[in-house]
Structure formats: structure tokens, C-alpha cells
Amino acid sequence: MSDVVTRFAPSPTGHLHLGGARTALFNWLLARHYGGRFCLRIEDTDTLRSKQEYTTSILASMRWLGLDWDGDVLYQSDRTELYSSYVDQLLASGHAYYCSCTPEEVEAMRAKARAEGRKPRYDGHCRDRHLGPGKGHCVRLRLPDTGRIVFDDMVKGPIATDVQELDDMVIRRADGMPTYNMAVVVDDHTMGLTHIIRGDDHVPNTPKQIVLYQALGLPIPRFGHVPMILGKDKQKLSKRHGAKAVIEYEKDGLLPEALVNYLARLGWSHGDQEIFTLDELIKDFDGSNLNPSAACFDDVKFSWLNAHYLRALPLDQLGQRVAPFVASEGLLVPTGERMDALCVMFRERAQDLKGLAHCFRPLLVEASALDYVEKDAKKHFTPAGAQHLRALSQCFAALTPFTKEAIDEQLNSYVAQNGLKFKEVAPPVRTALMGFMGGSHLHEIMAFLGKEETLARFAKAIAACDQER
RNA sequence: GUCACCAUCGUCUAUCCGGUUAGGACAGCGGCCUCUCAAGCCGCCAAGACGAGUUCAAAUCUCGUUGGUGACGCCA
Q1: Per-residue pLDDT tens for A323-337?
Q2: Of A239, A301, A354, A421, which residue is the catalytic one?
């Protein structure tokens, strides 16, 4: 197993989505586990639907996830001649033949077969007509008349197909372009692939490709078909059911390490372990323990993983990553110790970067712009609350230095000297500072705001208390 | 229509080749902690689709049923 070569081969007809990302991840992990190569190939032979911007987007998402590839990206559109030479080889060896049947004629055959309850397939009309190249002639593969094609799937185990189920498939279109299965086989072989992990929807393609490998006399790689990812309620993941592109998760402030971890655990397991570092995944992912049944993507559990990684991130990195989201909240981005302080105060209270940035808001706006949550203001801006705020306002005005420790001490001594409970004093103070009953420890909040801003918020709250009366 | 794949708590899964009070995680519920909200810790709830067969013993092996999904292109 020393020369493992895997690949990810998306077609650039859309952004990288969850299923594709997981397929890419599994291939990447397998290659990294065995110290092999992971290649990237863009299947852009469908010129109508393929777009350069999607290729760019897919590559960007791969980088965001940290899935690096070896060597240059291969584009199928550059390799038409190569595919054609393999088709010619098949023609020369008698494994393929020209066919003059029109698509309409073939469609009629299929319709007839379907109507008679048989499998719709090409009936081999041109098989022995010994046609040569000509206008409108495609090339078909000559299948063996009988036999079974068997392969041992890494995920599903042995899968057998009777050749009777198959067709003399087209391998080169009338316009000279190769068909999908032809191009894939040529590419997978010339790229030296040893293991192919792909979506479950390719299971029916596999025997077709194996027949091609056999006709060409090429070694057959190992296949692994992972089931598709379902959305909530076992529904197929579609736009309606929250199918999101990787790029959207990035925009929403979710962490790539969380997505990698979550995706890895969807359809693969390593005992009871839930949290994996990238190195652990590489160490443990050897192509076994792949689950053959389809799995639902659970946003809630994914969210939990995000929160976990958010808390685990080193402070400087967290600050760096949240900064763009703070900016898009329309807030001035703090730097240095101020950013660190905010992260420490709120990272346990957010699930993702966007949410974290949002938590910063009350502390980054000016007192005048602070909004009170009505319910909390009504409840805590009482006459007694106003009294505490007035008294504390005086205490804090005189407090130097205005540090976390000093503030905490002041708060506690006020409570003790007046025979109160912290619980009686904290709510109005908290509401005055945050606008609602949430957030970090009071002394941390005040230290962050500084004396002037703290006093401004007290003053504003006192005014609000008077209004409540 | 034909063929194929799949089937353990609500969800992700463990239980490698038959013997477990069917384990863990997320969610939910309860508690502890506590100035709030979180986080953290502790506890509770919760599953082998159905029916046969093989066997001393089946979630595990076999067959069938049901349900779900995929595929049947000169798309990829």
C-alpha cells in the first residue's frame, strides 16, 4: 500500500457542496494516511454547463478546508486527443465498433424495451456491420455476451453485475468527444490512481468502467462508494432542504476544522471518538470503517462542533478570524488586547465567528447607541435599581486604577457594606452595561469599557429608570 | 418498468468473524456551579423496520416483506 494515489474529480457546474467536500476529504485522508498522492482533476467536458468561476470557487473551498493537492490540476478539456487515441486502440483491437444509429433510433429501441418490461438498452444493431468512420457515426464498446463483473467495494463489499444488464455503450460521440466513462477510465489510469472513493451514484458506472479497463488491458483500481448525504428528515439534500455549498459555511463564519471533523464522522467512525485533529484523522483513516448507509447532515451537532473549535482556537487566531465579521457588523474592529479581551469574554457564548462578532456589538457601540431589551429594562430598572446605579456610579467615579480586580473588589464591598446580595445589585448593572441580561462577568465588561464609558452607561440607565417610574 | 444499494435511540455512530443491563456523541429533560447568558460537571430519557429460517444462543448469518435511495443518455 505504499503507492496510494487518489483523486477528487469535480465537474465545474456549481460550487463545492457538502457531498463533494466529503468525497474530497476521504480521498485526501486516504492519500495522506498512506503517504501517497492526492490529485485534482476538473471534469469540464460539458462545455455548456461548465464555468471557470466554479472551478475557481471549488479550488478556493478546497484550500479553505485545507485539502491540498499534489501536482497540477488536470483539465479534461485539454485531453481530448488522448482519449481519442485510446478509443482508436479499442477500435483496432476489435473491442469497439462504429455505429450509425441516430440518437432517435436508439431512443426508440429503449422505449420499446421499456414497454416490454425489459431493461432499456442498445440492441447491438451495428455490432457486426463493420462500419468505418463517417458523419454521424459514434463509437461503441463491444461488450462480452455473457459473464459477471465483480468488484470488491471498500464501503459496500462485493458487488456483482451481469453483463446482460449493460449496453454496448458509446465511448466516442459522433462529434469526436469522449463520453464520461471513457474519459474517466483513461484519466484514472494515466494518473496512476490506485483507489477511487466517490459518491454512491457512481456504483452503476463502475462495471461499465471495469469493462473498459479489461478491454484496454489495464489494471483495475480499488473502488469505494460512499452513500449520499441527506438533509434533515432523511430528505435528499437539495436547495430546499438546506443543501449548502461549502462557500456559504465560510461566509456564515463556520470553521473549516469543524466542517472537516464533522464530515469525516459522517459515514466514517473510529470507535467512540467524536473530536479529531487533522493529524488524528490522517493517522486513523485507512479506508476501513466506512459506513454503507446514508447519513443525515445535522446542523445542530455541526454547530456544537463549531462551538468546540471556536473555544479551542488560540486567541490571536480567533481575533484574526473574527475580524472580518466584526467589520461586516458595521463595527470598528478592535486590535491587540482589546480584541483578545472580547474574545475571552464571548467565545464561550458563541457558536461561530459571525455569532461571536455579533456578541461584541453591545460593547463596541457608544453608550448613546446602546439599546435596551425591553423585557429586561422593565424588570431591572426599578427604583431600587436606580439607587444602586447612583451609588455605584459615585464609587466607580472615584476608583483608580480602573482595573478588573479593583472593579470586582468595589462591587463586592458595595454589596457587603450595604448588607445586600450580589443578585440584587447585578441585574440593573448588567442591563445598564449590556442592554440585556447576558454577557460576561461584570468586572470584565466594565474594565473593557473603561471608566468613562462605564459611567456614561450608568448615567443613561439611571435616566431610563426615572422614566420607568 | 428493470436492476442495484441501504435499514441500531429523533440525529451521527460503536457493538470487528453470533453470547453485552446494546456503549458513546449531539439534541431533549433534570441537577450542580453561578451576578446573567453561556461553558463545564453529574444524572435521566431513548434503538436493533417487519416476518420466517439456521442455532443451545441472532442486532449480528440466510431468505422473504416493507420502506428509503440510486441508476438505467452520443450528461457528468
Answers
A1: 999 999 999 999 999
A2: A239
> What 3-state DSSP class applies to A179?
coil
CB < 7 Å to strand B — which of 372-401 in chain A? none
Pick out the nucleotide with least CA–C1' distance to A274.
B25
Q: What is the DSSP letter of A100?
A: -
- Tell if A294 CB is < 7 Å from nucleic strand B: yes
Q: Are residues A354 and A258 in the same domain?
A: no
Q: How many Å apart are A346 CA and B73 C1'?
A: 55
**A306 domain residue, yes or no:** no
Total structural domains in chain A? 4
Q: Can you read off the three cell numbers belonging to residue A208?
A: 461499465
How far apart (Å, rounded) are the C-alpha atoms in residues A375 and A354? Answer: 25
Final residue of a domain: which of A273, A300, A327? Answer: A300
pLDDT at A441 over 80: yes
My answer on whether A167 and A217 are in the same domain is: yes
Range of lowest pLDDT (A340-344, A379-383, A388-392): A379-383
Range of the domain at A294: 5-76+229-300
Neighbour tally for A354: CB within 10 Å? 19
First to last CA, chain A: 79
**List of A residues 121-160 with CB within 7 A of strand B:** 121-122, 136, 138, 156-157, 159-160
Per-residue model confidence as pLDDT tens digits over A87-127: 999 999 999 999 999 999 999 988 888 888 788 889 889 99
Q: Is the pLDDT of residue A427 over 80?
A: yes
Give me the CATH number covering residue A330.
Answer: 1.10.8
Q: Is the CB of A102 under 7 A from strand B?
A: yes
